[in-house]
Design brief:
The chain has helices at 2-15, 20-35, 66-70, 80-93, 111-120, 136-145, 159-166, 171-185, 197-200, 203-214, 241-250, 305-314, 316-320, 327-332; strands at 43-47, 97-101, 124-129, 149-153, 189-194, 219-223, 256-258, 264-265, 268-269, 278-281, 287-288. By secondary structure, it is α/β, with parallel strands linked by helices. It has a single domain, classed as Aldolase class I (TIM Barrel). The chain starts with a helix and ends with a helix. The protein binds S-adenosylmethionine.
Length: 333
């Protein structure tokens, strides 16, 4: 009972500025899944660029990209028109939510146009950003375009530690300003933070949650470490099931949540992607399980999104994997 009340408070905070069109899309999703029994993803994590000014020590984005390994030329990023096409298809399929992801999505100059197009199609538009380019002017423009929520990454309550982990001096101050601006402009902001075993037990973790409250963020999103990208060889980094349950139990669930709307079942952390609630599209149009698993199941440049999703969900390696935050195991199984 308290759990449901806390969840309701959290959803209210984060969903405060939803339009009627957003609510319609979400109800339609419920209808498709529960009544028509048409399995439909809840969210697309849409990578719009791999470019990024940070060099985070834990970065999983674009894990194992050929270009990183062999310094070969990368394919061209999706154009604005191609992204609009993906958003159109998402709304036709009945997917209600998009998270614009990177790399750093605010590097793209057409970010406001992308948000505006998705919002016009009734999609709940979120952005996940490191916050550096989130100026007051951009915040106002994104609000006008219809953005629903901005996820801003914060790796520590300490300015020195955050900037060191991100390889970017001065970033912490911009994150703090960005969260304040979102509140002033009326955009729910979610502080995204990746927790290692050591960090979750630290004073810094509690201070970071307190700081997020002080700054009037709407919520804190906890990301469990995934063994991918710069952590690809680090099996130790993955929290055990018991450790994950302990973190889930310790959180104030009216303010903090794990990863996404479908990431926890009972008290257990589950994979939203393998439960068909989430998928990832790379900045090159590849349809993938998630950002941490660099395996393409089709490309939106060569066919429809609906067909690519169908192909991915029926692929033997998708069917075989039940729980996975270990990218290496997924790719080679
Ligand atoms: C990959 S970044 C991309 C968006 C943007 N540049 C940012 O910093 O938020 C999105 C989030 O994923 C988190 N992240 C990156 N690598 C991770 C990993 N190996 N395990 C868990 N979370 C990770 C980051 O800390 C960040 O909060």
């Amino acid at each position: 009972m308290f759990q449901s009340l806390n969840t309701a408070i959290l959803y209210y905070r984060v969903g405060k500025n939803m339009s009627l069109a957003n609510i319609y899309s979400m109800l339609r999703w419920k209808y498709l899944n529960d009544i028509r029994k048409v399995e439909t993803p809840w969210i697309i994590i849409l990578g719009i660029t791999y470019r990024c000014q940070c060099s985070c020590s834990h970065c999983s984005a674009g894990a194992g990209r050929e270009s990183d390994k062999y310094k070969i030329e990368t394919p061209k990023e999706l154009t604005l028109e191609e992204i609009k096409g993906i958003l159109d298809q998402a709304s036709e399929i009945g997917i209600p939510k998009i998270d614009l992801f990177g790399g750093e999505p605010l590097i793209r100059e057409d970010i406001v146009d992308i948000v505006a197009h998705g919002a016009k199609r009734g999609l709940y538009m979120a952005i996940t950003t490191n916050g550096e380019y989130l100026t007051k002017d951009l915040t106002v423009a994104l609000k006008k375009a219809g953005v629903n929520c901005i996820n801003i990454s914060l790796d520590s309550a300490s300015e020195r530690v955050h900037d060191r982990l991100r390889g970017r001096v001065g970033l912490y101050k911009k994150v703090v300003e960005g969260i304040k601006d979102c509140h002033e402009v009326g955009i729910p902001s979610i502080v995204s933070t990746c927790v290692t075993r050591k960090r979750v037990a630290s004073k810094d973790f509690k201070e970071m949650i307190a700081l997020s409250r002080d700054l009037k963020a709407s919520a804190v999103r906890i990301l469990f470490p995934s063994q991918a990208g710069r952590w690809n060889e680090n099996r130790e980094i993955v929290l055990s099931e018991e450790e994950q349950v302990a973190v889930i139990d310790s959180l104030d669930s009216s303010f903090c949540f794990i990863e996404g709307a479908f990431s926890v079942a009972g008290k257990k952390k589950v994979c939203q992607a393998l439960r068909k609630k989430m998928l990832y599209i790379s900045p090159y149009g590849d349809v993938q399980v998630c950002v941490a698993i660099n395996k393409s199941f089709g490309n939106v440049r060569n066919g429809s999104l609906k067909e690519a999703i169908k192909g991915m969900w029926s692929h033997p390696s998708f069917v075989k994997n039940k729980d996975c935050c270990a990218a290496g195991e997924f790719i080679y199984s």
